[in-house]
Amino acid sequence: MLAELITSDKLSRLAGERAYGRGKAYFEAGAVVDLIDKGTAVLARVEGTDTYRVSLSAERNLLRYNCTCPVVAEGAFCKHAVAAGLTWLAAHEGQVELTTQVTTEFDLEAIRRYLEAEDKAALVTLLMTQIDSDASLRARLRMRAAARDDIDFKVIKATIRKAMTVREFVDYYAMDNLLRRVDPIAEMLSEFLLAGHAEKVVELSGYALQRGFATYERTDDSDGGFGDRLRDISRLHLEACRKAELDPKVLVKGLFDLLLKDDWGLVEFDA
Q1: What stretch of H or E contains 166?
Q2: Which of 195, 199, 207, 221 is at 20 to 30 A from 60, Cα to Cα?
Q3: 0.85 cut: is pTM over it?
């Protein structure tokens, strides 16, 4: 499917002559430093004035695209997406230089087989080494560790506070780092809910939303990614309210208070 959608001509038509020319220059300069081919989707890391993450995928015979650059937020097919598409095309034709690290779906399957066969202690060592330089992985594992039954809920609350706290205004280009910190929260709360901790999820998700609303006014969420994360948390909050054995009046008051703090109409609590 991707082979039919990612061609030089189609990339040129999507981007326009100017953006295509710039994207081609990026491609030729080796700006695409990392590319993952998952068969039905392409993920790439492109170095420009900043590091941008690009995704290309097939959906109903159309090429869907996204990039962390501001141009895509305006609906345009950016030069980074062009560079990623041309790199994918060159990889399929065996023309990619060593400046781009290409990972195919077969490579990913080989990695899976290796991990499944590897000794647990070796995997722990590998992960502990990786988290020294990977803040996103470190945040995700910290959340998972906090969700264990033998961890104090105060630790979990502190972890949420740290993920949701910003010291200064977060501009468009820095939002990706914030989202990577916040991403594990909904996953952790969902695991708690499945484990039967509905009352704690009411408390923790409500706290996460309060912190999130306070942080939202200090961000440029033009892409809507942070708002989406808050909506995910709000859905878990409502589900937990329905399952928790708490005073209905207390729950309703809590929901009303959260809505009052949401000055942007980000979340809804349907009955």
Answers
A1: none
A2: 221
A3: no
